[in-house]
């Protein structure tokens, strides 16, 4: 049972003080790996998988499906769980906060329905068969952990 959005003042306190549990979706398509160029911090300007925080009382699996729907307009099937990763950034999307810390859970997923309608966190959402340049080091860790994603060494 997801909760209501956290008010900005409280969100600032959370981001400033605790790691955020999140999921990242590595969406596979017939055309390649779906990535979007980040429009906000952290990782602004890099091609990165869509993702977001896990809400209270929401399982990671439920978060995967909610985020696929909210950020992409897609229904997805989980193909592979990549495990948990620690992502620490010097920047944050919240003014007055220096850095952001995620306990990120990577999932390889395949679209099973819906119509691709990305939200405003990514621009130029597209499928890659070759790695984007530059390749963000946290995306590299997901690729290295996967049994089925392309090896972009």
UniProtKB/TrEMBL annotation:
User: Which keywords has UniProt assigned to this entry?
Assistant: Hydrolase, Magnesium
Q: Which residues form the Nudix hydrolase domain?
A: 16-153
Which cofactors does it use?
A: Mg(2+)
Cite a single GO MF annotation: hydrolase activity
Keyword Magnesium listed? The answer is: yes
Q: Which PROSITE patterns match?
A: NUDIX (PS51462)
User: What name appears for this protein in its UniProt entry?
Assistant: NUDIX domain-containing protein
Organism the protein comes from: Halosegnis marinus
